[in-house]
Design a protein that fits this description.
The complex is a heterodimer of chains A (174) and B (74). Chain A has helices spanning 2-21, 25-29, 33-54, 65-72, 76-93, 99-103, 107-120, 129-156. By secondary structure, chain A is mostly helical. Chain A has one domain. Chain B has a domain at 29-73. The chains are: A mainly alpha (174), B mainly alpha (74).
């Protein structure tokens, strides 16, 4: 039992990493391809449904840390969105060469300037869109966390492929 | 502000129609949960539908209950 777990550890780490990076890939790796594809489509749809509502600032590493952590559990989806958000943020802050001057302000003033720039660019998230959009994106991350755990457990227990169909133990005939 | 772009600019949600978004959220949760839990994939659609109904009814009941509590005691 212990030997099996020890031998499965590298595979479990790989399953865990794959399941995080591409939602559903952990299940595909464990031989559950159909489930992996369903997970990939569902997690992706949940996350991008949120981003479609909230726009590029849905994944916000500066002001929404807890939601951001949840978003990062979606792997490639979260990373792509974070990259997009950083790109837009840096472009907005630096568009008139104000980045250095802004860095000298205290955090509250920096936030006020940034909020105004986001508002002017039509990117500011306001209620109730902010909550709903971040809830969808965050829930996608938490759902994938559940899938990551499942893929890792399957790997640790050495279970590959779909479970065998149970044979009915009831009476087969007279 | 330039033209509105999907996945870039946020959309404006009507507060009173917000609750309808509970349906896709429940569906996404039910699909993911049942995909990893169900033993036989052939039973997946039925299991998803059942869990979806339970979630929507449960959350609706919770919402109505909290609304009543709020109306009576607040």
């Amino acid at each position: 039992m212990v030997d099996t777990a020890m031998r499965s550890s590298p595979r479990a780490m790989l399953a865990l990493l794959l399941a995080w990076l591409v939602p559903g890939a952990g299940h595909v790796y464990m031989g559950r391809t159909a489930r992996g594809v369903i997970i990939f489509l569902t997690i992706g749809a949940t996350f991008w449904f949120g981003v479609a509502m909230g726009g590029v600032m849905t994944v916000d590493s500066r002001n929404e840390r807890w939601w951001f952590i949840a978003d990062m559990f979606t792997g490639v989806h979260g990373l792509v969105s974070w990259q997009r958000q950083e790109k837009v943020w840096n472009r907005l802050i630096d568009e008139d060469g104000q980045a250095q001057r802004l860095a000298q302000l205290d955090p509250l003033q920096q936030q006020a300037v940034a909020d105004k720039k986001l508002n002017d660019a039509g990117l500011a998230l306001v209620a109730p869109t902010d909550t709903v959009a971040r809830a969808f994106a965050g829930v996608a991350g938490l759902l994938n966390l559940m899938c990551i755990f499942d893929a890792a457990m399957l790997s640790l227990m050495g279970i590959r492929g779909e479970p065998a169909e149970k044979v009915s133990k009831g009476r087969q005939g007279p | 502000m330039n033209g509105w772009t999907l996945f870039y600019n946020p959309i404006t949600l009507d507060f009173y129609r917000l609750l309808w978004l509970l349906l896709p959220l429940c569906a996404f949760v039910a699909i993911t949960y049942k995909t990893i839990r169900v033993e036989n994939l052939r039973r997946l659609p039925l299991e998803i539908l059942l869990l979806c109904v339970y979630l929507v009814l449960g959350l609706s009941g919770l919402g109505v209950g909290l609304y009543i509590v709020q109306r009576l005691w607040m």
